[in-house]
Write a structure and sequence with these properties.
It contains 21 helices and 40 strands. It is of the alpha+beta class and about 900 residues long. The longest helix is centred in the first third of the chain and has 24 residues, at about 105-130.
Length: about 900
């Protein structure tokens, strides 16, 4: 067959587009002008909404918007997640958790990361459309980024943010939104949704009823700037409201936030979505009103257009019928929603939408995995390196002990709001890959992750193999019967059994639609170390679990969510036959997950004695810190932390490792600051790796063995204890973050060491400036060491004579640069005019004549302790505002 001529193909597409427009404008097309691509998106959205009944309009204001078949409007789920990779949906590239991306201090990198995420989101979306899969998480309206200020290290969701500084958060947030939404002049690539607008950062157990009280100065200086930047500069087309109230008004029904500031002051043209269940909170949690119709009316009138939840669909009609809300207010909200869908190209032929051609093969590609590795490397912060222990000489150590519950954990790579990579590297994997043949690497969990906390996580792909053991992943068979009878209608491989609630949708299997079905997983389970393993199945299905042919767990209920567990002893390196059967399933959302907990052995003392290097992997877990969790163990409550220390079992293991007098490198995997005071005193080297994503283990090993020179910097302050912190519930910024804290932290914001050294010279800044001036500051930075490395040039400003309370110092510019040994460069940074203003108690910004100190360097000035051994320097200058 002759290959098609490209001219003919292109011509055919043009003709198709013309015919579609002709049909849209013809009587045969019922003059549906919303399909006429020659009109503006605003005109088309207005036309479409005008054709809907009131009930049809209301149906579109929930996150699961049904089809309107008579108008040819397909169903759409607005809820998708992409915090650090496309979440919960097939294989995806998983970048470091957001707090780790912030630690890179790298704006161009953030743009590249977000561009890859949106590439994969688009690729998945169009592949799903080919299979008519429109379920939850299958859309391109992503509820990311989280740009709340991480004002207190006890907040469990701080890992999702870009840290404690409003300037750093704003700059990184702008790049993320730009990368997600693309740069096409007509179409949006995806929609980004900065959240949670606006004054929101815990406590998690109280979020559905909490009222955040904050003065106008803190509101404008700390809590709003990142939201303003992502909306005004980056053009974010969606914003998510917060659960809590702000000044006694629920954020999702707050006219000051949603109308006065967001739309009238900032010119926001997109749509506002509530956090999930937040409209229900208006009457159940905040008790602002008594009924659902009243809550729905308050939210829509204030400017909330879309409800993640059911209140709008259930109660908006009642609100209109009883006069609580006008039908025209419904029209306004629905027009905004369909304007977004128009801008995404959902009503246009793919030939007109540039992002529709992104191939599905780009998803989870080798190039994207390399970017995940680069991001992980750049996120790692070297906190301490006494005596130059790091980088390690790989030829020196022959017996290495990798110790700690985080070393083999998949959870501690992924964090929360994650996708599932097709391949990943734990810290244990990374270290094993660095050492030469003949070197022995031994792994032990060493301790429980926290006191009274059974650390169950999904059995990871590295422990599951096909029945013959020759390939990764369990064999899975699906049957069009309730009891596994008959021939399987589909057979495949699955590397993870983790279909838990809505966080990992069940695969769509057309052969099993509208029928009762069953499934069977078979294969081998690998035990990486000797000891007693916990096995657990979370389910809302009838199931049976067999190990080595013996039944070990089962449930005969498909109505009640059950959690069943047992314990089994396995030898190190042993494999065991595994069979899991799911019976009598219905629908597209079964709950079924297979978990395990690793054993804690008693031979750690002997192994420490015989080792010549210890890599100690400690920290936290997304099972301990995160969003509204059912966790109440010492140091943790409901997703938040009551202590910022290492959990007691890990602290005891640290003491034991230090007492061995062997070289010990501590690798921290966590999403928030830790008060590792004993480690700082006892151990020579400490590396902060965060939750580093799919290539985290490889990146950590690259840093430990010197294949990568660490250049990350802390986006949060590491305090010494909660004694240095104000009450968690207090949103006043005094005493919080590096900007207002006047004490001595363990490691300051902006801290990070290198394997080389940097020197600064030639600071240039104007001696005098006028109000409203953008000030350009430049400085020369040189790599004075023997290794290539990255330096983060940080620019801080202090108002020396402010008449109102002002930050101790504030970040006003930064740039990450890479320099070869002996290489230098001049870095120019522009300081915005508002940096020189002060905000009065009533919220007015003023520019007072006075004196400022500006400091340029690779760290925050003025700190002692471990930070005093920094491998960089600072320079300061004074300037006057006339």
């Amino acid at each position: 067959m002759r290959k098609p001529n490209l001219f003919h193909v292109f011509g055919g597409l043009v003709v198709s587009a013309i015919l579609i427009n002709m049909l849209a404008c013809s009587d045969a097309g019922q003059k549906m002008r919303f399909r006429d691509t020659s009109l503006s998106f605003e005109e088309r959205a207005t036309d479409l909404v005008s054709r809907m009944t009131l009930d049809e309009k209301i149906s579109q204001m929930g996150h699961m918007a049904p089809a309107i078949e008579r108008l040819g409007v397909p169903s759409y789920c607005w809820w998708s997640e992409a915090l650090h990779g496309v979440a919960y949906l097939k294989a995806a590239t998983v970048f470091p958790q957001a707090i780790g991306l912030a630690a890179t201090w790298d704006q161009p990198l953030m743009l590249r990361v977000a561009t890859v995420i949106s590439d994969e989101g688009r690729a998945k979306y169009h592949e799903d459309l080919r299979h008519d899969d429109r379920r939850i998480f299958h859309g391109i309206t992503f509820w990311s980024p989280n740009i709340n200020i991480f004002r207190d290290p006890r907040w469990g969701r701080g890992m999702e943010t870009y840290g404690e500084d409003p300037f750093l958060t704003a700059r990184l947030g702008v790049q993320f939104v730009r990368g997600m939404q693309g740069d096409d002049p007509k179409y949006l690539k995806t929609v980004a949704t900065p959240k949670h607008y606006a004054v929101h950062s815990g406590p998690e157990p109280e979020r559905h009823r909490f009222n955040a009280v904050v003065g106008q100065r803190d509101f404008l200086e700390t809590y709003l700037p990142a939201f303003r930047a992502t909306v005004v500069e980056a053009g974010a087309f969606s914003v998510m409201g917060a659960y809590n109230s702000f000044r006694d008004q629920p954020c999702c029904a707050n006219p000051t936030l949603l109308t006065d500031i967001l739309r009238n002051e900032w010119g926001f043209q997109g749509y506002v979505v509530s956090d999930c269940g937040a409209i229900q909170d208006i009457y159940e949690g905040h008790a602002k009103v008594k009924t659902g119709p009243e809550a729905a009316a308050l939210a829509v009138a204030a400017g909330c257009d879309l409800n993640c939840g059911l209140v709008f669909q259930n109660d908006l009609r009642k609100a209109v019928d009883t006069g609580l809300l006008g039908a025209d207010q419904i029209d306004t909200a629905v027009r905004r929603l369909f304007l977004a869908r128009m801008k995404l190209g959902m009503f246009d032929p793919d030939s007109l939408v540039p992002f529709a051609s992104i191939p599905f093969s780009d998803n989870d590609s080798p190039e994207h995995r390399e970017l995940a590795l680069e991001a992980a490397r750049k996120s790692i912060v070297l906190l301490k390196n006494e005596g130059g222990l790091l980088p390690l000489d790989r030829t020196r150590y022959r017996n290495v002990l990798v110790l700690g519950p985080q070393a083999f954990s998949l959870d501690c790579l992924l964090g929360n709001y994650y996708g599932m990579p097709s391949a990943y590297s734990t810290v244990l994997d990374g270290i094993r890959g660095k050492l030469p043949e003949g070197a022995q690497v031994t792994y032990r969990t060493g301790c429980a992750i926290a006191e009274d906390f059974p650390n169950f996580e999904c059995v990871p792909p590295k422990a599951l193999f096909a029945p013959g053991g020759e390939s990764a992943g369990l064999k899975v068979e699906y049957f069009a019967s309730a009891d596994l009878s008959g021939q399987p209608v589909r057979t495949g491989s699955e590397e993870l059994i983790g279909y838990e609630r809505h966080h990992r949708p069940w695969p769509l299997i057309p052969e099993l639609q509208n029928t009762v079905y069953s499934a069977r997983w078979t294969g081998r389970l690998l035990a990486p170390q000797e000891g007693t393993y916990g096995l657990r199945v979370n389910s809302k299905q009838v199931y049976r679990l067999f190990i080595d042919g013996q039944p070990v767990l089962s449930s005969d209920s498909a109505e009640v969510y059950t959690v069943n567990s047992t314990s089994l002893d396995f030898a190190a390196g042993s494999t065991h036959e595994l069979r899991l059967e799911m019976l009598a399933a219905e629908g597209n959302d079964p709950y079924l997950s297979l978990y395990w907990s690793l054993p804690v052995q008693s031979d750690v003392d002997a192994l420490l004695k015989n080792s010549d290097l210890v890599v100690l992997c400690l920290g936290l877990s997304p099972k301990l810190e995160g969003e509204e969790m059912d966790v109440k163990v010492p140091g943790f409550l409901g997703g938040d932390r009551t202590s910022i220390d290492l959990p007691a079992p890990q602290e005891a293991l640290l003491e034991k490792a230090a007492a061995s007098r062997k070289p010990v490198v501590l690798v921290l995997l966590n999403g928030s600051a830790l008060a590792v005071n004993r480690a700082d005193k006892l151990l020579p080297a400490i590396v902060e790796a965060w939750y580093p994503g799919e290539e985290g283990g490889r990146a950590v090993a690259d840093v430990l063995f010197g294949d990568c020179n660490p250049g990350g910097r802390l986006p949060v302050t590491f305090f010494k204890s909660t004694d240095q912190l104000p009450p968690f519930e207090d949103y006043d910024m005094q005493g919080r973050t590096y900007r207002y804290f006047k004490g001595d932290p363990l490691y300051p914001f902006g801290h990070g060491l290198s394997y080389t050294t940097f020197a600064y010279s030639g600071l240039e800044a104007p001696a005098e400036i006028k109000a409203g001036d953008t000030v350009t500051v430049s400085v020369e930075v040189k790599n004075t060491g023997s290794r290539a490395g990255d330096e983060v040039v940080q620019l801080y400003l202090t108002d020396l004579v402010a008449s109102a309370p002002a930050p101790v110092r504030a970040l006003v510019g930064f740039q990450r640069v890479s320099l070869a040994p002996g290489e230098s460069c001049r870095v120019k940074l522009d300081v915005a005019p508002e940096a020189f203003g002060i905000i009065s108690d009533n919220g007015e910004r003023a520019y007072e004549p006075g004196e400022f100190e500006i400091t340029a360097g690779g760290k925050q000035p003025g700190f002692k302790g471990s930070a005093d051994a920094a491998t960089t320097s600072t320079l300061s200058a004074r300037l006057k505002l006339l």
